[in-house]
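notes to self, project folder thing:

trying the whole complex as one job this time. last attempt i did each chain seperately and stitching them together was a nightmare. two parts in total, labels are on each line so i dont mix them up again. if this works i'll redo the older ones the same way
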Amino acid sequence: MAAPILEMVDIRKQFGHIIALSGVSFGVQAGECHCLLGDNGAGKSTLIKTMSGVHVPSQGEIRVGGQVAHFTTPRDAMAAGIATVYQDLAMIPLMSVARNFWMGREPQKGFWPFRCFDLETADTITMQEMRHMGISLREPGQAVGTLSGGERQAVAIARAVYFGAKVLILDEPTSALGVRQTANVLTTIDHVRKKGIGVVFITHNVRHALAVGDRFTVLNRGKTLGTADRGHISAEELQNLMAGGQELAQLEASLGGTV
Amino acid sequence: MTNVQTNEAPRPTLPKDERVKELHRLHKALIRPELGAICGTIAVFVFFMILAGGTQMFALEGVMNWGTVSAQFVVLAVGVCLLMIAGEFDLSLGSMVGFSGMIFALLVMKLGIPVWGGILLTMMLCASLGMINGWLVIRTGLPSFIVTLAFLFILRGATIWSAITFNRQPVVSGVGEVAAGDPIAWLFGGEAFTGLFQWLGQQGVIATFTKGTRMGQPVVSGIPMLMVWAIVFVLVGQWVLTRTRFGNWIFAAGGDPEAARYVGVPVARVKILMFMVAALCAAFLGIEQVIEFGSAASDRGIMKEFEAIICVVIGGALLTGGYGSVVGAALGAIIFGVVQQGLFFTNVESSLFRVFLGSILLAAVLANTYVRRLITGEK
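result (full assembly):
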């Protein structure tokens, strides 16, 4: 196997006396959907923030394409191709899809002082990218507020992919969604994976994870319990691991001895 | 097999999503921020055409009269509109109008600084005050309401104090004489296109005075400079807002600062800049009035901040930011000017103006809230 595009090696993070992460290790390959499962309080938020450069780990290494990387700001992580789509921080409802899509990176044309926002290019590319994600928009000028939660996630994902993300971290993208919208997001994840992008899908919903995941890592009490491949672990086993690992011993085999 | 050859690959047609309801044209028009203001403007014009049709209100002189009043509101409303879309507002702008005029007059009359220098220094001072306002709001995280309310009093107090201290009375006069012949003062006062109006008068297109010292001169000698500026402000403001990258950042900063920051929009910079632009609009109006009237008065600009906010809200902007239009705000300002002067033409008790203002503000806010629900699909 090639070097993972993003690898976390024994990451530990302490806030004063509180140990938030006590040994997290996993790697994401290009073109895979790596599911990170954990119950509330397992350390998912801290881990996301560490991967996206918000927190600097107290111990351990982050490797990007095999090279050790030091992220001190979210900008560093973004520059390394790691994009994070937060559940509630993705879009501005009053603005159009195209304006949201290009927010912060608007294409421009003309010369100063008449340089302006190239709305035509922006609209065309937005429609095209959304079509690639399987979302049909009425028009690029449609306000994001009129989209469903799933479609908003899809716009945010399409945006991250278009702007060169190599690793996409999705923070509980399905937890607030209904069945159809969830299916929408899972399809989008599949589209992204096929483009050769590594997806880190963070969730506590085992069924959603099993629907698209290639590999599964369980996070419990700030620690990763190991990684299992698709087909080598069942929903019940994942559920038990998340819940506290009472049946850890029995599962050792199915987790490939990495526990 | 078909023999038909086309140069283009057939465009893939997407399966129609049955849930995406085609928007009715009316619905589409409704979600434009200016719509309410356009209807309001038409209503106000029709109303006064009927009520004041027999007066001079819609003669050229009358048009210049309410046009000038509207232009004053427009200049301030453009700044307030951009600031409000960026998610903030500034209650100190009315005081800023008085303050800038007073500082300008004192610089020119008491320190003997040339008019152009006075204009430049006043603009710079007011821009810095706007920056301080913005910086305090961003830095402390306090609502702009409270920070700028403080400046409403600070600036008004400073205006009166400086007038009394340096001039021993609340009015500084004599600026008109000094401004005559200055290289840039003409930009702030007087009239444009006077030659054209002279010619129109000679051609008999517009009426001329038939007696007195100005016999033969047209009754309207030109377009007030302020009106020209108001149009320029609106065009530039609307262009920047809807057609530039920076305009997108203004919407983003007001729509959801967190989401905007996350994708790399410099939210703090955008907001502070908008505070500065609004302060500059106020300073422009302050200086313009001093040059136009020849004097600075320390009570000038009182209530202007609220009137400008009303114009902007009538124009379809949301008080919460992220949505609005400069053209809408300008139409709001025209409604304001037409009604204020229209009541004068129709001899209606002028205190009713305030009653009207309050009512139209309420109506506009209700309409905007409804439009917001249409856009975002909230219930």
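what i see at first glance: Chain B touches chain A at residues 14-17, 20, 22-23, 31, 239, 243-245, 247-249, 251-252, 255-256, 258-260, 262-265, 318, 322-323, 372, 375-378 (CB under 8 Å).
need to look closer tmrw
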